[in-house]
Structures are given as structure tokens and as C-alpha cells.
Amino acid sequence: MILGTDQIHKRICEEKLIENLSERELENPESVVIDLRIKKAFRLEGTAFLGVEERETPRAVLISEFNPRKKTELILKPGEYVLTETIEKFNMPRDLFCIIKPRATLHRMGVISRQSIVDPGFSGTIHPALYNAGTISVTIEMGARYVQVFFIEIKGEVSAYRGQWQGGRSTTEGREKQV
Fold first, then answer.
1. Which residues contact 128 (CB under 8 A, 6 or more apart)?
2. Per-residue pLDDT tens for 65-85?
3. Domain of 117, in residue numbers
4. Does 173 fall in a domain?
5. Which of 123, 48, 45, 137 is nearest to 83 (CA)?
6. Which runs of consecutive H residues, i.e. helices, occur in the chain?
7. Structural domains in the chain (count)
8. What is the CATH number of the domain that holds 66?
9. Distance between CA atoms of 102 and 33, rounded to whole angstroms?
10. How far apart are CA 166 and CA 89, in angstroms?
11. What CA–CA distance (Å, rounded) separates 64 from 62?
């Protein structure tokens, strides 16, 4: 079952389900989703490896960051791919998970968003990726709402997330053994 905003807000207040939400999302959310804002954008550099037991992600080089006292922007050129980080932090209980989708405005600009789910037991910021598949440069103001999440209730037993992305880190910082 997908949770309505009344249930989401109740759990935000009682369990700190999501921290650092904007005033708009606390007071006037739309539909059954909560919009998340872009805090950081990273360019990926180096090499990557995904093996049976080990992995290594490329270096994440910070190229833009939200500053509440000064407007900052990310300019995403055609063919560019960036990893981002949300302002909001999740504290997921074992009976919920989230699916993240891009806001429709990104589609209308030619930007594709890719992300994983937010697992039960996960705590931290999330890192949606943005890819400009269009033919024009797209400017995104840091702090803008860019992805949205909806919460789905889990019935039955579940193993809590215990992976290495716990806490919201953005890169592996070298080769590491997978959990």
C-alpha cells in the first residue's frame, strides 16, 4: 500500500522518517509524494569496477553545492551525467521502502534521472543521477525540487539494509569488498 501524505507526515513527526524537509513539503505537499531538493552535484572521474566480491566506484568531484545564502546553479550540458545528493536525509523503518522518481519538469527538459530504491533500515542522504539526453543545456538551481519519493508499506518480515552505502556516502574511495 502506498502511504498518503497524512501518514507520511505522521511518521515524519513521530519517527523522523525524513529530516531537513522544506517548509513547502511540511505544510503543502502534493499528491502522494514528497519532493526532495538537490544539495550537491558531482562529476565522476577515474575508473570503476564491479566484480563478484569487490567493487570500486569512480571519484566523485564536487562541481556545485547548495548555499542558502547565495544562489548557485548546476549547468548540465547535453550528454553530461552527474551524481547528486539530496538535502533531505532518510531514516527508514523496517516496514517501509521508497521509490524515487524524477519530477516531470526534468523530462520536459530532456533530463533523465536514475536512482535506486530507499531500502528498509537505510539511514542517510540519497544520490540520484542526472543525465542530459537532450540537445540543450539545462540549468538547475541548487536547492530546487528535482526528484520525488513515495512510500510503500511492507507486509511481512524483511531484512534491514546493511549495505555499505549506509549513512549516505557517495563513493567507495577505492576498491572494497562488497557486503
1. 84, 86, 100, 102, 113, 114, 115, 146, 147
2. 999 999 999 999 999 999 999
3. 5-154
4. no
5. 45
6. 5-15, 23-27, 104-109
7. 1
8. 2.70.40.10
9. 11
10. 11
11. 6
